[in-house]
Amino acid sequence: MIKSELILRLAAANPHLYQRDVERIVSTIFQEVADALARGDRVEIRGFGAFSVKSRPARTGRNPRTGEAVEVSEKFVPFFKTGKELRERLNVDEAPAPAKKKAAKA
Fold this sequence. Notes:
Blueprint: H1 3-13, H2 19-38, E1 43-45, E2 49-56, E3 59-62, E4 69-72, E5 75-82, H3 84-90
Antiparallel strand pairs: 1-2, 2-5, 3-4
């Protein structure tokens, strides 16, 4: 699902709201999450998951074309960890697989 599809679904589920208002709400939520991550804060949405920022230290990499050593600077990357409820919802149909029997030797 992309952002525009999310907006359309939310607008359809809430006919008392204008689509432009739903679009503003969704954009504001995403902007607030991005701003919090940029400040180094953690954003937790209970039952859904938590967004945080992880640091990747500086390292020496390789240019894949030439094989030449290249210095890669420290980076900060967004990280998402699913919440327990979302994980359970995604794996609801997942039952333990039955154990396979070994073939009998004749």
